[in-house]
Each structure stands twice: as structure tokens, then as C-alpha cells.
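Weekly sync, protein design subgroup
Attendees: M.S., D.O., the rotation student, P.L. (late)

Item 1: inverse folding check
M.S. brought a backbone from last month's batch and wanted to see whether the design step gives back something sensible before we order anything. D.O. pointed out we never logged the input encoding, so this time it goes straight into the notes. C-alpha cells as presented (193 positions):
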């Protein structure tokens, strides 16, 4: 069976006719309309998005068979998954977050940093979160400059630590811990003015 990828999360009910707020984790939020039935992680329940429209930071969606507010409220918080083989192939330098989670992270010098714990986006670009064997997690911009190599076949990402993180590493070496660095750059930097 193909790996399941979380593509959306159902939020609170919207109105009285069974619509729900739907947060999607796809590049095109409306793409969830084209994946067919979406399932819960355990596969016990299946849902089909009949229609959707864009709102501020989410979709307002109609789920087939959900016709009133009470039914919509019972779905709040459900994550919806699709089989990996139903998703489009990625372009070069494009990755599904699920493919990155769990990869080993090491510096360009080959020093192990830990494992990729998550990819976050707080609005200003993707952030890669690395969990070291001990100590605080490391948050770095997921850009070509900081993550020059993603080797899915080899199960690793190569990290070019920014100077401020290396400086923090030296000052934290007494505690044997790297302090987290926070940044908000776009995943692929541009040379355009």
C-alpha cells in the first residue's frame, strides 16, 4: 500500500448548512477537490470534498453527506489523508514534507546534527526543524543556501550551518547543545532585484 500523505485538516463548522473550514497542506489549496475521497489516517472513514471556495487563510468546503451544522461540528479537527500515488510528481528541488521527515541531517563537513523532525511555514518561508540526539531542536530556513542537498535515496539532508548558528554552537559547547536559530527566508532565494 502506498504511503498516506496528510493533505488537509477540517476545522470548525461554517454556517448552518454543513459547510466546514478546511485547511489544506497543498501548494494549490483547491487541489483537494481533485484527489477523490480523502480518508482518516486509520482509513476507517472517507470523505469527499464536493465543493470549496477560498476564504482568508483556508477553504470553506462542503463535504458530501454533511448537511447540517451538528454533523459539521463532529468533524472538527479531523486530518484527511490521500495515498501518495494519487499526488502529482514533484519537480526538481520540490519535496513533500512527509518525504523529508525522519531524514538524517548532517553538516557539509559530515558532522551528524540529528533527524528532520518537521517542516514549518509561519508565513515567511519554509523552516526545517532538526532534532539533535540531545538538547534543543534546531530551526533553520529551508533554502538552497542552508540546505544545499536533499538526498532522498540516501536518507539525508546536508546542512550549511549559518555563521550565527556556528557561533552559538561554540558558545554552547560547554552545555553540549546547539541553540535554535530562527529565520524567515523563502525556500529558493532569487537573484532578482
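Designed sequence read out in the meeting:
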Amino acid at each position: 500500500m502506498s504511503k498516506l500523505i496528510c493533505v488537509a485538516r477540517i476545522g470548525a463548522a461554517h454556517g448552518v448548512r454543513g459547510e466546514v473550514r478546511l485547511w489544506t497542506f497543498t501548494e494549490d489549496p483547491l487541489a483537494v477537490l481533485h484527489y477523490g475521497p480523502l480518508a482518516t489516517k486509520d482509513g476507517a472513514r472517507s470523505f469527499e470534498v464536493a465543493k470549496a471556495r477560498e476564504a482568508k487563510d483556508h477553504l470553506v468546503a462542503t463535504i458530501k453527506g454533511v448537511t447540517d451544522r451538528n454533523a459539521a461540528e463532529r468533524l472538527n479537527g479531523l486530518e484527511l489523508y490521500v495515498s501518495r500515488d494519487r499526488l502529482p510528481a514533484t519537480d526538481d528541488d520540490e519535496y513533500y514534507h512527509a518525504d523529508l521527515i525522519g531524514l538524517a541531517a548532517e553538516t557539509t563537513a559530515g558532522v551528524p546534527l540529528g533527524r528532520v523532525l518537521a517542516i514549518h511555514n509561519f508565513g515567511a518561508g519554509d523552516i526545517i526543524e532538526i532534532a539533535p540526539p540531545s538538547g534543543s531542536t534546531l530551526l533553520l530556513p529551508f533554502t538552497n543556501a542552508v540546505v544545499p542537498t536533499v538526498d532522498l535515496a540516501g536518507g539525508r539532508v546536508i546542512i550549511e550551518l549559518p555563521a550565527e548558528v556556528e557561533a552559538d554552537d561554540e558558545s554552547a559547547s560547554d552545555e553540549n547543545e546547539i541553540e535554535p536559530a530562527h529565520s524567515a527566508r523563502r525556500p529558493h532565494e532569487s537573484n532578482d532585484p
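Discussion: Helices lie at 69-73, 97-100, 163-171. Residues 163-171 form the longest helix (9 residues).
Action: P.L. to compare against the previous round before Friday.
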